[in-house]
Write a structure and sequence with these properties.
Blueprint lengths: L5 E7 L3 H17 L14 H4 L3 E9 L6 H12 L6 E4 L3 H8 L4 E4 L7 H9 L3 E5 L6 H14 L3 E4 L6 H10 L6 E11 H7 L8 H17 L3 E9 L22 E8 L4 E10 L8 E8 L2 E6 H4 L1 E5 L3 E5 L5 E5 L2 E6 L1 H17 L4 H4 L10 H22 L6 E4 L6 E4 L2
Parallel strand pairs: 1-2, 1-4, 2-3, 4-5, 5-6, 7-10
Antiparallel strand pairs: 7-11, 8-9, 8-17, 9-10, 11-12, 13-14, 15-16, 17-18
Helix pairs in contact: 5-6, 6-13, 9-13
Length: 421
């Protein structure tokens, strides 16, 4: 195969994930190639081999032509990549038209959580590789179908699980945790601002805070510790969003999803993990998110807090704030539009590198350790599926004065909900 492999890339979804991560990274790939960014993910050894590869954004698809989002994205992209021939597409199932007309090699799926499954599966069945925003999907049956289809077609399905690439997590799990003896317990928190569930996303009622961000920590724990889940107990609270009112008019606008969730997972060998997630942090909170992780072992413990490791500042009118420049950060230089760097970019680069290497002859088995594959996400999707069912039922029972007795088994290959009343 020629060293000058060219990959045609299409995107479905044009919201926050595209604006903050996918779009800037694709601009860098089309302008500068992938080689400059491989060292950040420990894959610099592929730099010379992949240096001549070319990337081209050919299509952007969004839901409604009325808003014109895809067209605006194409215009924005051309500001940094003059001469780009990317085309806007619109529709309920916009990926179908894109796959048929734009003939991409790669489909990037940045749709709402519950709309990942259909475009991913359609792309794989069309012989197209995929990069999908987290989570892979919300139902275990869907994950199994995607995994089987990808294996059958020999295609890469890469999930954007950027917490794997956070340098703090790498330090913690690769250097410190191995010296802790056996890990007894993990506690991980990730809490999002209220505006995410009420303003940024219109689809919050079709997901929940554990599915939206808890999947990051479940992936990190499984990836670095190599543990497999056995059972799940999940609870949640529906107080604020379920009674939400339009801030401008005061009219009721209920959002039927959990404000917060607490998911306790028992893993093989007896390790326990507690995942705490929410998306109702008030706007006055100092950071974009509140995230922390604690690891307790037989010979030590470790604790990492986002605010403790971030950049703190205070400005009149803004109050005290915390920034995380390690996630995604512009790198300005003279005479060109900003590049970006950070672990938010690293995860996308890992997926794209795997796709490129597959197109150049590497097997899926060879690639598996080097990126967050669909297969690696199966246990995480099982936890999301189980937690959603268990938390909903426990909330119903709690309101009825019966506590939260429902659990689920996930170690037998499926999700089996058990109600001990």
């Amino acid at each position: 195969m020629s060293n000058r492999t060219s990959l045609r890339v299409a995107v479905v979804g044009g919201g926050m994930f595209f604006a903050e991560i996918i779009g800037p990274v694709l601009r860098d790939l089309e302008r500068y190639g992938i080689a400059p960014y491989l060292g950040a993910i420990g894959q610099g050894r592929w730099g010379r081999e992949l240096a001549e590869a070319r990337w081209e954004l050919v299509a952007v698809g969004t839901h409604s032509a009325r808003r014109g989002t895809a067209g605006k994205i194409v215009d924005w992209y051309r500001q940094a990549v003059p001469g780009s021939t990317a085309r806007p597409f619109y529709g309920e199932t916009v990926w179908e038209e894109i796959l048929a007309e734009a003939t991409p090699d790669v489909l990037v799926v940045a749709t709402p959580d519950d709309l990942h499954y259909a475009p991913v599966l359609a792309a794989v069945r069309a012989g197209v590789d995929v990069l999908v925003e987290k989570p892979l999907c919300l139902k275990l049956a869907q994950a199994d179908e995607v995994i089987a289809a990808a294996a059958s077609a020999g295609r890469v399905v890469a999930a954007d699980m950027h917490k794997r690439y956070d340098p703090m997590n790498r330090k913690l799990f690769q250097e410190i945790v191995p010296r802790m003896g056996e890990v007894n317990y993990v506690e991980a928190v990730l809490e999002e601002p209220l505006q995410v569930a009420t303003e940024v996303f219109q689809w919050a009622a079709r997901s929940n805070p554990f599915s939206y961000v808890g999947c990051h920590w479940t992936d990190v724990v499984q990836h670095y510790l190599g543990v497999r889940p056995l059972s799940v107990h999940a609870t949640g609270q529906k107080r604020l969003l379920a009674n939400w009112r339009d801030p401008a008019t005061g009219e009721p606008r209920p959002i039927d999803t959990f404000d917060s969730m607490q998911v306790k997972v028992t893993y093989e060998g007896g390790m326990e993990a507690l995942y705490v997630n929410a998306w109702v942090n008030p706007p006055d909170f100092e950071g974009n998110v509140n995230q922390e992780i604690k690891v307790f072992g037989t010979r030590g413990s470790a604790f990492m807090d986002q605010q403790d490791r971030g950049l703190r500042y205070c400005l009149t009118g803004d109050g005290s704030r915390t920034a995380n420049p390690l996630f995604i950060q512009p790198v300005p230089h003279s005479g060109a539009t900003d590049e970006v760097r950070g672990y938010g970019k690293d995860s996308v680069i890992a997926g794209m590198a795997a796709i490129l290497r597959r197109r150049r002859g590497a097997t899926l088995e060879e690639l598996e350790p080097d990126y967050p594959s669909a297969a690696s996400q199966r246990d995480t999707v099982a936890l999301l599926d189980a937690a959603a069912q268990v938390a909903e039922r426990n909330w119903e029972l709690t309101l009825a004065g019966k506590g939260s007795p429902v659990t689920a088994e996930v170690g037998g290959g499926g999700v089996e909900v058990r109600e001990a009343l």
